[in-house]
Amino acid sequence: MPVATPPFVFASVPARLPANFAAGAITPDNAPLRICIIIRTDAKPGVSPLVPIRETLDARVYLGCITDAAGAVIRYVELWVQDPTGLGRAPAAYRNALTNHTLDERWVRMANDLASSDSPIITCGWESTHPAPLFLDAKTQKIIPPRDERTGASWNLCTDESLLERKGLPAYGTTLSRHLYQPDLADTSEVLPVDLIGGEPSAIKSALGLAGTPISVNPGGGLMLVTPLAECSFEHFCDALSGHSGEAGDADSFLRVISASALGATNGKPVKQGGWLGLSGVGQTGRMIEALHVKLMLLAGAASHLHAAARRSQAPLLNITADSLRVRLTPGLSTLPLWWAAQTVLVVPGEALELPIPNTSTKYFVAPSSGGMSIYAPASIGQIAGGKGWLRLRNVSSEGDGTILEGTLSTQERLAAGTNDLLWLRLSAGPTRIDLHATVDAGSAMATGELRLRTVPTRLTEGAVSHLRSALGVPIPDVAFELVPLLSTPCDLYSFGVLAVRTLLAGGKRSLPVALDDVLSLALHTGRDADSGRDLATRIGLAFESDKRFTESLGPQSLLVDCPDATNAFDAVPPRLWFGVLAFTIRCLTGVSPDSRCRDFGDAPAGAIHRVFDGPLEDLYALLSSCRALIVPDHALNREIRSVVKDCLASAKK
After folding, report:
1. Cα(440)–Cα(422) distance, rounded to whole angstroms?
2. How many whole angstroms separate alpha carbon 31 and alpha carbon 43?
3. pLDDT digits (tens, 9 = 90+) for 298-308
4. Which of 67, 422, 514, 592 lies 20 to 30 Å (CA to CA) from residue 177?
């Protein structure tokens, strides 16, 4: 669900926070500008008074602000706090490839990427150096120093590997375990697992000896980021453009509020037209083509961000939804209407993780799963098949410095292995637990529920190899496994295609599942004639002519809530332009038809996986050019037409 930003963030700044909200400074009080986290002063007992914006795999993001020395808000920001507890929802293959060291590296890389983007971070030093655990007093909104009342020593995140080893605790860098300790006390310090610190205020106070009434902001001393706030939910903004009412309230009111604030209206007087170019004054036709143009601009901005993110990391994101994007309003512009100056911002970093698989040139990425399915994600992303089964070893051999196992996995789970899918296995070889990765030959299995496999060469101890050789032909029980599909940026392209459906065809009473189902039906219908020699837009036009249900469900009338039917909509949006919009959308949906740009979810150029977004960007720029020609007149063409008309009239008079 999109997050409804509190209305006060749209107010002109500098300004004071409204009643029942306060700014808790997390930087020194004597600084001329202070970074603060916003607190609800009327929060109910047991409910966090912080204002959440979103939660990612390893972070919580809260609403914050920058204030001056007098406490006036200069601008609103997002405060990112590293919190690895969300990893508990991820599959085993994902968690096993992560450590605190890799999490910190990912955080620093994300900060560097943001610093080089068009949405730069506000550098505070917390991006790469762990700050002290951060707590605020609920009554005074002041920092409570994390200092033990009994010893007077400060608490910090323990990254001292030798101390952890002496205490008999898991290492920091090579595990996901995190502990707080008192560095001033060295080996005599008490060590507390971070998992115990994030509970009720009374539990926190008891564990750390804190004074006052603590609010947990960063109880584990994780890395932090501060970024400018992107005010609007992507979905809210698109719905408001179409006239749909949503969680942000009546669409026209929402448009007036953000328009008035961003364009500097004073005394509560709203700006008329809500930031349109001006065609809304000529009625529904003007508003419809302008709404299409603005929505295509938002999608082009999203595609550009996804292209750039994949180019920098050479890894897919695998977590794209409408919540991954927000819209930033550019204040103070008088040269462009507000909607035309709105910018799409990618606010959720990718969560794809490359599996460290030796002896293979193919890169396998896995995505975290919360146990549910997302309409934006192909089923192969969130539904990693896994469970336990029996492994029958057929052969144990050596290749180079590694050992290869060949055998058959038998399980009652339903498995549908693809050609390039990877199998992760965990089994015991005597007292040793080993993790293996294997390629699957689904065609050679002898029975239903079986997979014939061959592991990639893996370094094993002599004892483990000896134990495995002795187990040849003997079924090994309780072998944990997960089937990891080959995933790359075509997954992101599919998600982007669903986002296009949400932006252009859904909203209000028309739900995304219904709109997407209709688009998939159109894709299958037009795909039957893919070898006819006609382009996709032409085939879509023929489908609209042959089956009026497509016109009723997928016509441009979805662009505005008050458009009565497709006939009126096509008076505003030329059919060929709209069929091109639908063709662009279908081509983004990986693997759904012969017209899809990518055949499957691993179909990306090696070493240039970002190139899958080149085609959609070209489509969008061409569509925007066609839209713009309808909005901004071509005066040279008008002069030519007038000249032709003049010549015709002159001929008629003769």
Report:
1. 7
2. 28
3. 999 999 999 99
4. 422
Cα–Cα–Cα angle for 437, 351, 196, rounded to 5 degrees: 95
The total of other beta-carbon atoms located within 10 Å of residue 468's CB is: 21
Determine the pLDDT at residue 637.
Answer: 46
Q: Which segments within 255-401 are labelled E, that is strand?
A: 325-328, 343-346, 353-354, 365-366, 386-399
CA dihedral 429, 433, 435, 436 (to 10 degrees): 0
Distance in angstroms (rounded) separating the CA atoms of residues 405 and 633: 69
Average pLDDT over residues 24-41: 90
Helices (H), 328-475: 338-341, 379-382, 462-470
Query: Cα separation of 166 and 144, whole Å?
Result: 30
3-class DSSP state of 145 = coil
Interatomic CA distance for residues 524 and 495, integer angstroms: 18
- At residue 4 the predicted structure's pLDDT band, cuts being 50, 70 and 90, is low
> Measured between alpha carbons, how far is 131 from 617 in angstroms, rounded to an integer?
41
Quick one: tokens of 76?
């609103």
Q: Where are the alpha helices (DSSP H) in 280-427?
A: 284-313, 338-341, 379-382
Q: Over 90: is that where the pLDDT of 440 sits?
A: no
* Cβ neighbours, 10 Å, residue 267: 5
* Cα four-point dihedral sign 111, 115, 120, 123: positive
Cβ 200 vs Cβ 137: under 8 Å: no
Largest CA distance in the chain: 110
Q: Which two tokens stand for residue 399?
A: 């290749």
Residue among 59, 531, 473, 490 at smallest CA distance from 316: 490
Q: How many angstroms separate the CA atoms of 324 and 498, rounded?
A: 13
* % of the chain exceeding 90 in pLDDT: 40
Residues 6+ apart with CB under 8 A from 511: none
Can you read off the two tokens belonging to residue 225?
């980021």
Helices (H) and strands (E) in the chain, counts: 18, 22
By residue count, the chain amounts to: 654
CA distances from 491 to 77, 377, 488 (A): 31, 7, 6
Q: What is the pLDDT, as a whole number, of residue 44? A: 85
The whole-angstrom separation of Cα 203 and Cα 155 is 16
Cα angle vertex 321, ends 316, 323, to 5°? 120
Cross-strand partners of 426: 435, 480
| Beta-bridge mates of residue 440 | 453
What is the overall mean pLDDT for the chain?
83
Looking up tokens 């990893």 gives 87
3-state secondary structure of 233: strand
Predicted TM-score (pTM) of this structure: 0.82
What residue type is 330 in one-letter code?
Answer: T
Beta-carbon contacts of residue 112 (< 8 Å; ≥ 6 apart): none
Express each pLDDT in 554-582 by its tens digit.
999 999 887 878 888 898 899 999 999 99
Confidence check: pLDDT of 268 > 50: no
Omega within 30 of 0 (cis) for the link into 457: no
Beta strands in 158-234 (DSSP E): 179-181, 192-193, 214-218, 224-228, 232-233
Residue 185 CA: distances (Å) to CA of 145, 151, 348: 17, 9, 39
Provide the edge-to-edge strand list for the sheet that holds 156-157. Answer: 156-157, 179-181, 192-193
Would you give the DSSP letter of residue 507? B
